[in-house]
Structure formats: structure tokens, C-alpha cells
Specification:
The complex is a heterodimer of chains A (244) and B (214). Chain A is of the alpha+beta class and 244 residues long. Chain A has helices spanning 33-46, 118-127, 147-157, 164-168, 175-186, 195-208, 219-223, 231-241, and strands at 3-9, 18-24, 69-70, 73-74, 96-100, 109-111, 114-115. Chain A folds into two domains: 3-110, Ubiquitin-like (UB roll); 117-131 and 141-241, Alpha-helical ferredoxin (Fumarate Reductase Iron-sulfur Protein, Chain B, domain 2, Orthogonal Bundle). Chain B contains eight helices and no strands. Classes of the chains: A alpha+beta (244), B mainly alpha (214).
């Protein structure tokens, strides 16, 4: 496959970026999107040019590092996939692909396609945990949990914090991320003792980090690679109102 | 504490409550408007008179005006804040799938607000004595307005846009209030659709009936 790539290049957080054009030949449809970028970078390095900086780690869809905005979609046009799992077979030979970093004020660009997502970490640090006495793990069945609740909690817990929800939202709202992090605890008995403090602290931190408000457009749910549901946001709202 | 009371969620909570109150008001207004279809102006004028003079209604009217103010002001503030959160825009338009009409709430809401201002000049300000006219005969004023083709076209355009606004608003208010789950959300979406079609349609058919039958 031959591709025409238009990629955002930005030296660092302080400089103004711009798009650069690259023609890439010999792309296999079996490659992942990141492998395609690897092959472009190999070519750039061989030519003595600065390779394109992009975040990546596990390359199996569970770390949440590799977010980028591809042809108008966070993580590309295929629902339920992270960029690393996006295969080049979804693109046509000769296609023009535009790649941009996440665009949101709380996610400043560090370099090229890498954005600083530490705002998410700060929200997590504010309350996304349970306080337990360290030591040997307790007996798993000592607290009984309804299977349905445990499944729902798991469906929320699989949020990888990639930031696609913020990138997709017209308001750059982090509500889907925060709601997943709240829900994974709210649904389980272990999360209840600190539920009120947790939701208050995380919402205050979310606002402090400068994320937008939720308009319930559902763009976040549509673009979430882990298919985190909007009902989590309703749960977050309930948790918040009942925290007074 | 201030951070909690004025958090993003608290603001949306206020927006949702105000919006739901306005959603309750519209069918009441429609019920009175449907009396315009009668040949006798008395029932409509009596209803308008009752709404203008009964003490309890006057108290609700103040609440209604405040609600409109809060809903509009908060809506504009939140929207403007949100616009500044993407200083560098995407080069390719964001194609993420969204709930129908949800991205255009500020614009559909703006159209409804413009209509509301015109409507206030035509009726409400007359009642307050700010504009000339007989507030005891709103029936004939309505008939005069509906005889102007340009007014009727504006009326219809605004009500279509109101329908778009209502379709997202009802389901969105429930979601914001935390009243959403896998079972009820599809039901609420269905009710939103029925409400968003029925109420604006009810208003819009009145000038049509007047044109065709009278």
C-alpha cells in the first residue's frame, strides 16, 4: 500500500506546530497503525530526519498510551479499537491519512503526537483508590458480591485512561473517564466506605484540571476503545448528588 | 465547599432542573393555545385573563421567568467556557457519532430565545403595559399575527428548531440528574421523541388550521 500522510509536527510544548506531509510506500495491510508509523520513522531516521514522536507501550490495547486523532476519529475510524490494534487493512491504497494529537486545553502537546495526560493521573490521585491495610491479600469470598454488579464494575474498570473521550468531546469533558473510575468502586462493597469523599475529591480535581462540562452528546461512548457506557456518567451524577 | 456547589456537575444540575420545569410549562401553554381553534374568542381570552390575574399563577410566572433566565445564562456561560477548551482545533472535522441534535443545543436554544423575545413583545409586554394593545383580547392579536405569512414562517422555523432542542433536552436532563440506566434510558428516549414531535407540532398546526378553515 502507498499512503499520503499529513502529520502534526511540534518540537515542544512552547513552539507552534504545523502539519508535515509524507509519502510512504510498501505499507502492508497486515501492519498495525503504529507499525506503519514505525516504518515511516525508520525511513526518516535513515534520511537523517527527526522521527515522529508518538506514545506507545503495550501495543495490545490495554495500556492507553497510543491515542491519536486519525481522519477525524480518536483512535481511527473503527469502533472499539485502540490505535495500536487498528490494522492498516481498514485503509485504502493511496489514501490520505491525517494524524493529529488529542486537542484539549488540559492535554497540552509535549511533542508531535504526544500529549501530557497527567491531568488524568491527578484526578486518580485525588480519590481513585480504596484505603486498605497492606499485607496478605484477604480471602476473596469473605465479602460476597452480586455477579451482575461485579460484571458492571469490571466493565467500568477496563477504562485504560487513554483520553479518547476528552478528544472526542466537543467540550473536552472528562466525565466518561471520571465516571468509569468512580463506578468501578461505587458498584462494589469495598468502594462504599469512601464513596462520598472519593466523588467530591475527584470532581473538584476534574474541574481544577480544566475539563469541560458534559452535554450528553455521547461522542465519548462512541469513540471509547473499551466501550465504557454513558450510564456510568449518570451513576457519577447520582454519586455526586448523594455525597452531601 | 464553593468548589463543590459551583462544580461543573452542579451547574449542569441547575440547567437540567430549569429545563425540566420549562418542559412542564410548554404543554400548559399549548393547551391554552389550542383554544384559538374555536370560533368563539371567549374561552381563549378568559384563559389568558386567568393566567394574567390569578395570584398562584402570577407566583409561578415569576418562577418561570427566573427559570428561563437561569437556563439561558447558565447555558451561555457553560457553552462559552467549553468553546475555549480546544484552543487548537482539529484540522479534520470531528466525526465522532453523537446523539441527534445534541451538538447544536446552543444554536437551537438561541433560535427559541429569539422567538421568545418577539413573543414577549407581541404579548407579554402588552400585558405589562410596556407595549400598546388590548391585553384582554389576545385572541384577535394572535389572529392578526397568524395572518402575516412572514410571521407564520418564522413561527414554524422556530418550532422545528424547538423540537430539535426538546428531543435532546428531555433525555439529557434525565441523564444529568442521574436517572439513566440500561432499562429506562431507551424508554426516556422514546418519550423524548414523542414529546419533541407532539408539542411543537401542536403549536405549529394552529396557524395552519386557521388558514385552511377560516
Amino acid at each position: 500500500m502507498k499512503l499520503r500522510l499529513k502529520i502534526w509536527r511540534q518540537k515542544n510544548a512552547k513552539t507552534k506546530g504545523a502539519f508535515a506531509f509524507y509519502d510512504l510506500d510498501g505499507v502492508s495491510p497486515d501492519m498495525s497503525f503504529l507499525e506503519m508509523l514505525d516504518s515511516l520513522n525508520k525511513k526518516l531516521i535513515e534520511e537523517g530526519k527527526d522521527p515522529i514522536a508518538f506514545d506507545h507501550d503495550c501495543r495490545e490495547g490495554i495500556c492507553g498510551s497510543c491515542g491519536m486523532f486519525i481522519n477525524g476519529y480518536p483512535h481511527g475510524p473503527v469502533p472499539g479499537l485502540t490505535t495500536c490494534l487498528l490494522s492498516m487493512r481498514y485503509f485504502k491504497d493511496g489514501e490520505k491519512i491525517v494524524i493529529e494529537p488529542w486537542r484539549a486545553k488540559p492535554f497540552p502537546v509535549i511533542k508531535d503526537l504526544i500529549v501530557d495526560r497527567s491531568a488524568f493521573d491527578k484526578i486518580q490521585i485525588a480519590g481513585g483508590f480504596i484505603s486498605v491495610t497492606a499485607g496478605a491479600a484477604s480471602e476473596a469470598n469473605s465479602i460476597l458480591v452480586r455477579k451482575k454488579k461485579s460484571d458492571e464494575a469490571f466493565d467500568s474498570a477496563i477504562c485504560i485512561g487513554c483520553g479518547a473521550c476528552v478528544a472526542a468531546c466537543k467540550n473536552a469533558s472528562a466525565m466518561l473517564f471520571v465516571s468509569a473510575k468512580i463506578s468501578q468502586f461505587a458498584l462494589l462493597p469495598q468502594g462504599r466506605p469512601e464513596a462520598k469523599e472519593r466523588v467530591r475529591a475527584m470532581i473538584v480535581e476534574m474541574d481544577k484540571q480544566g475539563f469541560g462540562t458534559c452535554s450528553n452528546t455521547g461522542a465519548c461512548e462512541a469513540q471509547c476503545p473499551k466501550k465504557i457506557k454513558l450510564t456510568n456518567i449518570a451513576r457519577l451524577n447520582r454519586e455526586y448528588y448523594s455525597a452531601f | 465547599m464553593n468548589k463543590i456547589l459551583f462544580s461543573a456537575i452542579s451547574k449542569k444540575f441547575v440547567m437540567a432542573l430549569a429545563g425540566l420545569f420549562l418542559l412542564l410549562f410548554l404543554p400548559v401553554h399549548l393547551g391554552i393555545n389550542l383554544m384559538l381553534l374555536k370560533d368563539d374568542p371567549e374561552p381563549f381570552n378568559n384563559a389568558a385573563h386567568f393566567m394574567a390575574t390569578f395570584h398562584l399563577v402570577k407566583a409561578v410566572e415569576i418562577l418561570l421567568l427566573l427559570t428561563i433566565l437561569v437556563h439561558v445564562v447558565y447555558g451561555i456561560i457553560l457553552q462559552v467556557q467549553n468553546w475555549f477548551l480546544r484552543p487548537v482545533r482539529y484540522a479534520v472535522r470531528n466525526k465522532s457519532e453523537t446523539s441527534a441534535f445534541s451538538r447544536f443545543m446552543i444554536w437551537t436554544g438561541g433560535a427559541v430565545l429569539i422567538f421568545l423575545v418577539i413573543h414577549f413583545f407581541n404579548f407579554y409586554f402588552m400585558k405589562l403595559g410596556l407595549v400598546d394593545g388590548d391585553p384582554e383580547n389576545f385572541y384577535s392579536i394572535a389572529y392578526q399575527l397568524f395572518s402575516i405569512p412572514g410571521y407564520v414562517i418564522l413561527y414554524w422555523v422556530c418550532f422545528i428548531l424547538l423540537g430539535f432542542h426538546l428531543y435532546h433536552s428531555l433525555q439529557s436532563a434525565f441523564q444529568t440528574l442521574g436517572l439513566a440506566n440500561d432499562f429506562w434510558t431507551p424508554v426516556i428516549k422514546g418519550i423524548s421523541l414523542i414529546y419533541a414531535v407532539a408539542v411543537p407540532l401542536g403549536f405549529a398546526i394552529i396557524p395552519l388550521f386557521i388558514w385552511l378553515l377560516k
